[in-house]
């Protein structure tokens, strides 16, 4: 778990530091600064919203008749523009995932780092697409803590979404498709290889500064 969290932080640090690398002396730093300042949506900010979570995969029937679990996500973002069309947006999010089954809720809490390519279709509308990694920090069944050992602490996947921007406010929606298996052991502690992963639809409001 610590290795996964360290990798997640290194990915965020690498993405945010990319635009500040000095490879040709002070003139190159000034050039990069001017390039970033011309982008209409560079900056930092906070965001949060509603998550509609469930599981997907060919083995999800092992969990029975599952349905969506409504929860939340929240965090911070930084956006670095390269011209008027393209920008890079790393984020650090606290995200709740899981599913419901027969009025019972299974919840998995993650710290996640998406690193998204942002393509500005207009000055106020953009498409987001990119990879993300995450670390599971807790698991609960009906508000009771459950053992993390059967689960894969490290997760990875892809995100895609749309965002509208008015002034400093952003409203968007995104689908997060996990590619890492949720579990590595069954309830008896036996190693398993099953195709069950998280999937989340997010709707969020952000404010940039």
From TrEMBL:
Signal peptide annotation: 1-19
Source species taxonomy: Bacteria, Pseudomonadati, Bacteroidota, Cytophagia, Cytophagales
Tagged with keyword Nucleotide-binding: no
Keywords: Signal
Annotated Gene3D superfamilies: 2.40.160.20
Protein name, entry field: Outer membrane protein beta-barrel domain-containing protein
Classification via InterPro entries: Beta-barrel_OMP_2 (IPR025665), OMP/PagP_B-barrel (IPR011250)
Protein species of origin: Pontibacter korlensis
Residue intervals of the Outer membrane protein beta-barrel domain: 41-182
